[in-house]
Design brief:
single chain, about 60 residues, mainly alpha, 2 helices, elongated
Amino acid sequence: MPLTPQAHGSVRSSAELNERIRGLWLRAGGRLSVEQRREYEQLVTEWAEAVRTEIVQAA
């Protein structure tokens, strides 16, 4: 399922994104197709932004 680009800053938590990343790997059986690789890269980028945001909010 392709993702649409998020506006600056994630509206999903890092935990939710982590769950989606894990689910993608499970569905793919450990081997990502080109489309799945793109989705993975988008999820990881969004996850990293969510982690940064959560750290700043906690500080």
